[in-house]
Write a structure and sequence with these properties.
20 helices, binds phenylalanine
Length: 443
Amino acid sequence: MSLQKMHGVWSNRWIFVLAATGSAVGLGNIWKFPYIVGENGGGAFVLVYLLCIALVGIPIMLAEVLLGRRGRQSPVNSMRYIVKEANQHKGWILIGIAGVVAGLCILSFYSIVASWILHYVVSMAKGTFDGLQAVQVSDYFGAVRGNHWVVAGLHTLFILMNVGVVALGVTRGLGLVARILMPLLFAMLLILLGYAIAKGDFAQALSFMFSFKLSDLTSDSILTALGHAFFTLSLGMGAIMAYGAYMPGKASIGQTVLLVGVLDTLVALVAGLAIFPIVFMSGIEASSGPGLLFVSLPVAFSGMTGGAFFGTLFFALVMLAAWSSAVSLIEPGVAWLVETKRFNRVQATVLLGGIGWLGGLGCLYSDSLFDFLDVLTSQFLLPLGGLCIAVFVGWFLPRKLVANEMNWEGHPMMEIWMFVLRYVSPVLVALIFVMAIFNKFFK
Ligand code: PHE
């Protein structure tokens, strides 16, 4: 069966850009980025994060899309195909398999955060936050988290929504979300930013996010920044490889990937710039952790004319962004199961969605499982997957094959990229790993 029939292809390059942006832009940008910036002291962390995006994330993203488009199947089978074509060791296929596992681990805690967001859509619409101060909103968030039955119900709903799209086939299910909702989400973030500039403590937010002392950096925060660069770009676990496989043959990988990387980074920075002025204005601790978004934004919306309307719309859009990310967490595994021919798409999706659902229930009842899966994936599995991808494409694939697939034969970009992919990205990832391990165990 052709790829077209089995998984579908994006109808043109723009749909790939939108779908890949849909995967990249999600809770990582709007929920996680601001709170880890807060926990890691601001500017120095942001700087390291931006460097990681430019020197590690984007170069590896190019490599990952390339592998997908060359292999034109699920990540596992794309790797199998390329390993054979380039006559390399079969062990590299593990990149694909580890990615499937990482995707399920991420889905488990991701879905729980998405269910808090779903809860907030309803709370906003009901006007729950009208007139509340930060302390009261914080209590409310605590109560939402503690309400296991409701969260379990919303988590089930979120998993079902994902199963629906993936069962239909992402190339069919995602177009609409990506085309209309991404631009709307961006517009909403700009409205929030406008409000934050007008009413919040914008000067302090700017200086918090962009001025830095090197002494603020610890090896832990450097590893967090690196891990987040992978997480936010959906790298290192095959999501972008799977999407690359559905990319039309001649579309330029270089420009496309750069655009996705820039859009993703912009959304994260704007989210931070919209949230921190409100955080400082209302006396919320910048380092208050995963609740930061859930406490700061209701305060902003409650002070805004039409706040309940904008608040509902905002959380609904964040929910959609989370949705278009979460589908890419199971797509690699589903595509693989379908290719084995032992499952059809619906069965494969229900099976993997079911595993994510169970994992989510685990995270709901155990905060330590939630934290463990978060750290395991962001700080370990994704960077390790990315490191292997960089080494494989940089050192083990024939140059000619790579240049040909990139459409970069004789192009100066090819030389620059190859240099970064061979010497800069893997060395940085390895160095950060070693440093973090050293500090954990020997200090
Ligand atoms: N990039 C997504 C986000 O920022 C999360 C994600 C990670 C999605 C890995 C797919 C793969 O929310």
